[in-house]
Specification:
The protein is of the alpha/beta class and about 425 residues long. It has two domains: about 1-340, ANL, N-terminal domain (Rossmann fold); about 360-430, no CATH class. About 30% of the residues lie in helices and about 25% in strands. A twelve-stranded mixed β-sheet has the order 4-5-3-6-7-8-9-10-14-13-12-11, with helices on both faces. It has a four-stranded mixed β-sheet with strand order 19-18-17-20. The model is unreliable at about 1-5 (pLDDT under 50).
Length: about 425
């Protein structure tokens, strides 16, 4: 077992009685001076244009000097010697895709390698820099604080973590009880009620579809008095990783009377934006990365990952943008992207696809180009794998379906299944409907 895995295992097994004390250690101590630096940048930042030009220019110069992929790309496009002084200069650079980076991954090395399924189920492996987590948490805390959050506040987190038969597990790193979203709420109702009656839980944090499922399932098995117990100390929901569909936010806000905030981000860490006023208007953090739009698609550049620069990277999400006088995107509306799709298991339990696909560590991510999910019927799922790997047994072994109560099979494809408009969706229609 690696040192990282060992430390993670130790942290995950620290009891609440001890972990709750450790939770009071400031993040400036846990993550070092970089966390403090990013926090100060966020709080004091004023001139977005100067910041964007300075940092974009720095990573552009670094990328073209160090990495053959960018050298060839920019020389071919005739922009190798370009000096970045305006938004129009930036727009002269070619846009890159996941496939471009995937084809040249061997050129890069970083502090940590990350796997993601992306917005459409397209697996992608990339490197992040050593300051990534300090930067990420500095910005995430800035978002949550808009709903009154303090790092010492206790929260319930629903993010698709497989806990086997356990109802929940305490995590002292973020002072949270991680609830097992693979168990029906009815089966752990008493444990959840006891958790709320013995602890001051102020926030629900997780995938919007998972938070929605948790609250709606509980509503069907608890009394009015028990619902008031759950709501007693809750202040808001922190909704990430999926676009929060209106039926979900309406339920949270109207049925439960809970405030919420959502944000747009992705594992590649190019763009981070938040919807402070609950109207699908995501304000971009200028200290995080640059957001652009091309043919309606959201394009991002990380200002800080010099280990594996992603410059003018196509996220695959569709947006409408609002601009500053200098031509920078200040905020955007998501028109198409991540969604709250789910599958239904044998017992009728809804399992969000974000949890099923992105919340578990599937080895198949290392070689599959696309992963798509087809719900044939309740408890019966087909994974459509686009890959050059044709060993079906290997692919089955590399899908982590432990403790998922469904029958599943795979179909291997050379190309993904697309909609009539050409979009590659994570959840696809059953063959009976196509």
């Amino acid at each position: 077992m690696s040192l990282k895995s060992t430390l993670k295992s130790i942290a995950e097994n620290i009891p609440y009685s001890l972990g709750s004390k450790l939770a009071y250690i400031p993040f400036s101590v846990r993550l070092g001076r970089d966390y403090t630096i990013y926090r100060k940048q966020i709080q004091s930042h004023q001139d977005s244009f100067t910041y964007a030009i300075k940092h974009f220019s720095a990573i552009f110069e670094h990328a073209k000097e160090k990495y053959p992929f960018y050298q060839k790309l920019y020389k071919k496009a005739g922009v190798y010697h370009l000096k970045i002084q305006s938004v129009k200069d930036i727009q002269q650079l070619p846009i890159i895709t996941k496939q471009d980076i995937r084809n040249h991954t061997d050129q890069f090395r970083g502090a940590m390698r990350i796997n993601t399924g992306g917005t459409s189920g397209e697996p992608f492996s990339f490197y992040i820099d050593k300051n990534a987590f300090a930067r990420e948490w500095a910005h995430m805390h800035a978002i949550w604080e808009k709903r009154g959050y303090k790092y010492t506040d206790l929260k319930i987190t629903l993010r698709g973590k497989d806990l086997g038969s356990k109802a929940f597990q305490y995590n002292p790193v973020h002072n949270e009880f991680i609830v097992n979203t693979y168990l029906p709420a009815a089966s752990i109702k008493d444990e959840i009620l006891n958790l709320f009656s013995t602890h001051t839980i102020k926030y629900l944090h997780g995938y919007p579809s998972a938070v929605y499922n948790f609250l709606s399932e509980l509503s069907s098995v608890i009394s009015t008095e028990e619902k008031m117990l759950l709501k007693k100390n809750l202040k808001a929901c922190l909704l990430g990783s999926e676009f929060p569909l209106p039926y979900i936010t309406d339920y949270i806000y109207q049925t439960w009377g809970l405030d919420y905030i959502s944000w747009y981000g992705h594992s590649e860490m190019c763009i981070l934006a938040y919807d402070e006023f609950k109207r699908n208007e995501y304000k971009v953090f200028p200290t995080y990365g640059l957001a652009e739009v091309a043919d309606g698609r959201l394009i991002g550049t990380s200002f800080h990952n010099f280990d594996m620069p992603l410059i003018r990277y196509d996220t695959g999400d569709l947006i409408e943008a609002n601009y500053s006088d200098e031509g920078l995107i200040e905020s955007f509306r998501v028109t198409q992207g991540r969604n709250g799709d789910y599958i239904v298991d044998k017992k009728g339990k809804h399992i969000p696809l974000t949890a099923l696909i992105f919340g578990r560590h599937h080895e198949v991510f290392n070689y599959a180009r696309f992963i798509q999910v087809e719900q044939v019927e309740a408890g019966n799922v087909v994974f459509h794998i686009t890959s050059d790997e044709h060993n079906s047994q290997k692919i089955l072994n590399d899908l982590n379906m432990k403790n998922i109560d469904v029958n599943y099979s795979i179909q291997i494809h050379h190309e993904p299944i697309r909609t009539k408009s050409g979009k590659v969706s994570l959840k696809i229609q059953s063959q009976k409907q196509r």
